[in-house]
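Hi support team,

I've been running sequence recovery on a batch of backbones for a student project. Most finish fine, but this one hangs at about 90% for roughly twenty minutes before it completes. I'm not sure whether the input is malformed or the queue is just slow. I've pasted the structure tokens below so you can try to reproduce it. Let me know if you need the job ID as well.

Thanks,
M.K.
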């Protein structure tokens, strides 16, 4: 299985790279093209295509720039 990487974009979406399946709260799958190398997931809440980003964060004044702590270890 290929690795999945999730990048937190400053003032923007979560960029998910790698093969993923996105499922809603009732277990239904969203369609993601199998040849698509990455998918952007909305964080601002204003996308018209949730859970996917449509660029709305650029016009709603969404601000977020999280940084991972140095030497972070999550258990």
């Amino acid at each position: 299985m290929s690795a999945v990487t999730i990048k937190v974009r400053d003032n923007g979406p979560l960029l998910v790279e790698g093969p993923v399946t996105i499922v809603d709260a009732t277990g239904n799958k969203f369609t993601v093209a199998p040849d698509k190398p990455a998918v952007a997931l909305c964080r601002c809440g204003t996308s018209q295509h949730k859970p996917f980003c449509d660029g709305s964060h650029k016009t709603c004044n969404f601000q977020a720039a999280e940084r991972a702590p140095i030497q972070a270890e999550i258990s």
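--
Follow-up from support: It reproduced on our side and the slowdown came from queue contention, not your input. The chain has a mean pLDDT of 92. No action needed from you.
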